[in-house]
Automatic annotation (TrEMBL):
<feature type="transmembrane region" description="Helical">
    <location>
        <begin position="101"/>
        <end position="125"/>
    </location>
</feature>
<feature type="transmembrane region" description="Helical">
    <location>
        <begin position="182"/>
        <end position="206"/>
    </location>
</feature>
<comment type="similarity">
    <text>Belongs to the binding-protein-dependent transport system permease family. CysTW subfamily.</text>
</comment>
<keyword id="KW-0472">Membrane</keyword>
<keyword id="KW-0813">Transport</keyword>
<dbReference type="InterPro" id="IPR051789">
    <property type="entry name" value="Bact_Polyamine_Transport"/>
</dbReference>
<keyword id="KW-0812">Transmembrane</keyword>
<feature type="transmembrane region" description="Helical">
    <location>
        <begin position="238"/>
        <end position="267"/>
    </location>
</feature>
<protein>
    <submittedName>
        <fullName>ABC transporter permease</fullName>
    </submittedName>
</protein>
<dbReference type="InterPro" id="IPR000515">
    <property type="entry name" value="MetI-like"/>
</dbReference>
<feature type="domain" description="ABC transmembrane type-1">
    <location>
        <begin position="68"/>
        <end position="260"/>
    </location>
</feature>
<keyword id="KW-1133">Transmembrane helix</keyword>
<feature type="transmembrane region" description="Helical">
    <location>
        <begin position="137"/>
        <end position="161"/>
    </location>
</feature>
<dbReference type="InterPro" id="IPR035906">
    <property type="entry name" value="MetI-like_sf"/>
</dbReference>
<keyword id="KW-1003">Cell membrane</keyword>
<feature type="transmembrane region" description="Helical">
    <location>
        <begin position="72"/>
        <end position="94"/>
    </location>
</feature>
């Protein structure tokens, strides 16, 4: 027994305690909100008195229904456009850019260093003054694409960085067209990176407040509806709304985790590195 206790050095104990406290700090609020969403005593749900009344009120609220539809629309289309453009840009960057690749990469990731508030305001001014476009769903999607594009590039680049371009050359040597080579050789090998970029950019666009707020105005999204409701105090419906959003995010992350554990997709993760390290 003393031998086992001797392995637990003070530094290791302090590290484990720090990790445990950090996880409690991060996830206890999520657990609290989840319990409050399904309890009659939502203000202090300990122990919870289980009920679906709060969730039912949320789902029957027309404002939140409209906001959910708008958020899903922005999230899906912004993720699709970001992933498609980032995929094409990353392929061109890694295969055809040559010595200018660092310059193009700096331009691609430049939006990472621009605050979302500034991006929303600048998009509103550009669309209104130069393009003559009013703020709407389309302009909000395009602005979110600008914001999410850089993240998608970095995610897809981790997958394509180790890609063997000789496979494409071999396919074209045997008579495959560039389009057929992409869909039958390249895409089946890089789809995990594309899926990872889609999931991350969807979450970012779905939860975005600053960009969508300036471009949509009175058109509600889930973040803007929640922000507006906070002016009148924290109502139980906000607990249910936060729980629904958390469930969507955790479900997408769980899909990525299961695909990684089953080996169906790696998303840039290489398990052999962990085995070699052990």
């Amino acid at each position: 027994m003393s031998m086992k206790l001797g392995k637990w050095k003070p530094g290791k104990i302090a590290l484990l305690a720090t990790v445990a406290v950090s996880y409690l700090f991060l996830y206890l609020p999520v657990v609290h909100i989840g319990l409050a969403s399904f309890a009659r005593n939502s203000n202090f749900p300990y122990p919870p008195k289980w009920s679906l009344d709060i969730m039912t009120r949320l789902l029957s609220n027309s404002l939140y229904q409209t906001a959910l539809g708008n958020s899903l629309l922005i999230g899906v289309f912004a993720a699709l456009l970001s992933t498609a453009l980032a995929g094409l840009a990353t392929i061109g960057l890694l295969r055809h850019a040559g010595r200018r690749a660092p310059v193009y990469l700096a331009l691609f990731i430049a939006p990472l260093f621009v605050a979302e508030v500034l991006l929303g305001i600048s998009s509103l001014i550009f669309n209104g003054l130069f393009l003559g476009l009013q703020g709407n769903i389309v302009s909000a999607i395009l602005a979110n694409v600008v914001h999410c594009f850089s993240y998608a590039v970095l995610i897809i680049a981790t997958q394509l960085y180790r890609y063997d371009w000789r496979l494409d050359d071999a396919a074209m040597v045997f008579g495959a067209s560039p389009a057929r080579t992409f869909f039958e050789v390249t895409l089946p090998l890089i789809w995990p990176g594309l899926l990872g970029a889609f999931i991350v950019t969807f979450i970012m666009a779905f939860n975005n407040l600053e960009i969508s707020f300036y471009l949509l105005g009175a058109t509600p999204t889930l973040p803007s509806a929640a922000w507006g409701a906070l002016r009148y105090g924290v109502k139980p419906e906000l607990y249910a709304l936060a729980t629904c959003v958390n469930l969507i995010v955790f479900t997408l992350l769980a899909v990525m985790f299961v695909l990684m554990m089953t080996g169906a997709a790696t998303f840039g993760h290489r398990p052999e590195r962990e085995r070699s390290a052990v």
